[in-house]
Amino acid sequence: MDINKVSTKSLDHLGLVSTLCKELGIADFIDSRLPKQPSQSHISHGELVVAMILNGLGFVSRTLHMIPAYFSDKPVERLIGEGISAKHINDDSLGRCLDTLYDLGVSSTFQKLSEKVISHLELPCNALNLDSTSMHVDGKYESEEDDDESSVIKITKGYSRDHRPELNQVIINLITENQAGIPVYMQACSGNTNDSEGFKRIVKSHISSLKDAYENRYLIGDAALYTAEKILLLENQKQLFITRVPQKIKQAKEIISSLKGSKFSFISEGYNGFWVESSYANVSQKWLVIKSDQAYKREIITLDNKLKKESLQAIKDFEKLSKQAFGCEGDAIKTLEIWKKKHPALSISNEKITTAKTYSKSGRPKKGEEGIPVYFIVGNLSSTLSYREIKQQEKGIFILSSNDCSDELDMLSMLQNYKSQQSVERGFRFLKSPDFLTSSLFLKKPERIEALLMVMTSCLMIYAALEHLIRKKLAEKELYFQCMKNKPTQKPTARWVFQCFSGIEELCINDQQKIVLNIKSRHEVILNCLGQQYRDFYS
Prior knowledge:
- This protein is an alpha+beta fold and 539 residues long.
- Helices cover 43% and strands 20% of the residues.
- It folds into three domains: 3-104 and 448-537, no CATH class; 106-246 and 401-445, Nucleotidyltransferase, domain 5 (2-Layer Sandwich), CATH 3.30.420; 247-400, no CATH class.
- It has helices at residues 14-24, 26-33, 45-56, 67-70, 76-79, 91-104, 106-121, 195-205, 207-214, 228-236, 250-257, 293-322, 329-342, 385-394, 411-419, 422-431, 446-476, 494-500, 521-530, 532-537; strands spanning 6-10, 127-136, 169-177, 183-190, 218-221, 240-244, 265-268, 271-278, 285-292, 346-358, 372-383, 397-402, 481-482, 488-489, 505-509, 513-517.
- Helix 3 packs across helix 17 (446-476) and helix 7 (106-121) packs parallel to helix 17.
- The mean pLDDT is 87.
């Protein structure tokens, strides 16, 4: 055997990703909407999307233009399709693919793709979760000077969730189903779009179609979803919601300020609550006032630190105030009242206004000189215990609202549904991970950035779907996988499974015979639970 005819390629966990993409028909779905052009004799748009998903889930933190290099040591034909090599996945083909995806309609295309995935996985989609985040973008783009009527997203500065206000950014709105955290809708917005405005557009234009597609019972969101306009829109569309109530709303303020003596009922470990009726925005609702033990402990520490800081500042201000001479008693009293309002954490005992006289010159006054009366504030400072008690009782409190006023929605169900909001937050952490595609976007046009955001969200979809399948099949077949702590589990993370598949290679002999190496018993557990298609891929 000629040793020069023997080579190895890194396969690792990418076979799982590739097989699931084939099982879900990702490439076929894209190609059915974007037929292969004559110039694409080797690779289709759908296959290029799969290539970007494989790169995105490779966890190598490479920018997009490095994709050809990424595939140089991968078995491309096995992963993507016969006759395809790394050279076909180049800057030009990827750029054209992103342009075509943008022209097709990023959000609508992704929604149709997600419907296909959710249907294949037979997920019930009882609730959908809505949230948004920002992603920073490097470079200068022509869209920064575009007129407001353009449909192209604006790459510009705005409120940064990453605390990087100096950087240009885009906003991504994401809706996930609440079982596996699979994204069902994504929308890219200009970098200066606030959550309230972005959510309003989604509620106006897309909630009805999502409800028709998934028959979801609830739309779940954070406080940005709770405005009079949006909840009225949801009510008119007969869409039930569960959302957090902003504490700045008058009724919420009144409830929180009068909590003393309220009767809380047990919901679950660490949570207690009680019901309140509301008709905010003329929509009949029930509010669940919740006290969280964990949040209380965390917020009390913050409160004490804040009060300490405020008290030190109040003492400094009072020292200055006590040295200030006032021309009349009324001015002194007025200034003192202002100080009290500004510093409620401290109170003044032995408070009084004293008087003295000032003269035209220092030293002994001239004989017969009357002097001008001036006034000073004196008193002793102490902590206002009642103020701390009031602030203390407000901590760990949040309010949830729903227009589902039926008995079907009890306290526990409402809390559990709201806590599923963590699924979309996990999705954002995934998208913004430094191991994923790139922490910042490097593309020439905002249109391509928007299309790439769709691809990145598709990576999240495949990742979440694979994790869901693995956990589901392990439970069904009563199989276990060793977790990071070397203990058996039926709920491994997809990331841990990916790591465990590291080191698997494809051996190629004489460009013909191809053998998969380094399959171990732990790999067999995953392949056996996922099924024949996955076993065949790694055979």
